[in-house]
Write a structure and sequence with these properties.
Rossmann fold; 10 helices
């Protein structure tokens, strides 16, 4: 469905029924990034997956390239959908947005899950995001070349999932400006990391990383877990950056156990 929320027309997809679990996808993705998680997560939950500002079926609106705006988008959507309190999960950039939501609106988050995400962006990653923002600013053709290059690094070598995910990302970034906006939100974490604000998060928090992730290695998860009081961390084996696609059963199991308070 599509709903008007703030300055956006937001594409929202839902599965199942029960307590609300809101899942935020990563940069260059859309709601289909959690397609392999849905069968398990939706058995006992209302899984809500919006497309990010300028991604998939959601309009770009008055984008300002900030993480705070992307988090405000989420809170506005909760208001629009009548969701007072949710379990909130985010992958990659979606994880950083989820952290920001928990900082800005702690009363809206019951439990928080960050997957392959970070609270800061280092020097090498800053150059990576600058290059991709420039490619997106140059138009769809330039961005497609970058997406094809990146798709390979997101998975373990030889993964059969690369081609399908590249197609998804090409479709999700049909408006390159949305991708550029997400890049700039990440770039802002170079000068203004979330680290000093992490102690303000009050929701029970689980941070999940993969040891083989070359884009967001476990050290990033360790920094987040160290900053959020009482949080826990899980380091997985056998996956690249795309944990929701490469390790869906393991990830879904960890998420459900944590949401149920069993871990």
């Amino acid at each position: 469905m599509r709903v008007r929320s703030g300055d956006l027309e937001v594409a929202v997809h839902e599965w199942g029924s029960g307590p609300a679990l809101l899942f935020l996808h990563g940069l260059g993705d859309d709601h289909r990034a959690l397609r392999r998680l849905v069968p398990e997560l939706s058995l006992g939950h209302r899984v809500v997956a919006p497309d990010m500002r300028g991604h998939g079926g959601t309009s770009l609106g008055h984008a300002d390239g900030s993480l705070a705006q992307l988090a405000t988008d989420v809170v506005s959507l909760l208001d629009t959908l009548g969701l007072d309190l949710v379990d909130l999960a985010g992958f990659s950039l979606g994880g950083a947005i989820a952290l920001q939501v928990a900082i800005q609106a702690p009363d809206r988050v019951r439990r928080l899950i960050g997957i392959a995400t970070s609270s800061r962006v280092g020097r090498a990653a800053l150059d990576w995001y600058r290059d991709r923002a420039r490619a997106a600013d140059s138009g769809a053709a330039e961005l497609r070349a970058v997406l094809a290059e990146d798709a390979v690094t997101m998975f373990l070598p030889g993964s059969p999932l690369v081609a399908g995910h590249l197609r998804l990302r090409e479709e999700a970034t049909a408006d390159p400006r949305g991708f550029a906006n997400g890049c700039r939100a990440n770039l802002a974490l170079g000068a203004a990391p979330l680290d000093p604000s992490l102690p303000r998060i009050t929701a029970p928090t689980l941070v999940i990383a993969s040891r083989q992730d070359v884009l967001c290695p476990p050290r990033a998860a360790e920094i987040v877990a160290a900053g959020v009081p009482g949080s826990s961390i899980e380091i997985l084996e056998g996956s690249g950056h795309e944990i929701p696609l490469e390790q869906p059963e393991t990830l879904a199991g960890l998420m459900l156990a944590f949401i149920a308070g069993r871990t």
